[in-house]
Amino acid sequence: VEPHKGFFGDDTGLNGVRLICDKGGQVTSSEGPRGSWGRPESCPPGQRLVSFRLRVEAPRGLWDDTAANSVAAICSGGSVLEGRGGPQGSWGNWSLPCPPGGGVCGLRTRLEPPQRGGDDTGLNDLELYCCS
């Protein structure tokens, strides 16, 4: 996540998502060039991610756009994890949950490349995939 730069900065918000697997592996989405990784959020032992939602800022016309700013997820036991992303935008609906016994096992993102003087947004969309 890129921290807010103030009135005259070009903010991007969320620039990447990383899943850390319970067996020690990890998978990272395409990453924008700005910001830094926050502290990992984890489901309780034995639980899996089963649903998510994004906080997204709608296009603002001539003003600075950020697109996706934060992600939240639900664990199979009902715990809610929320990233420490930016406050811009509003939360979308929760995704359909993974089938019983399944959990998130992969991801795909839509990332805007740097605009070279234009308005950068970073991460624009996220898909999480379920496996049984």
TrEMBL record:
Superkingdom, natural source: Eukaryota
Protein name, as recorded: VMO1 protein
GO CC, any one term: extracellular space
Organism of derivation: Vireo altiloquus
InterPro entries xrefs: VOMI, VOMI_sf
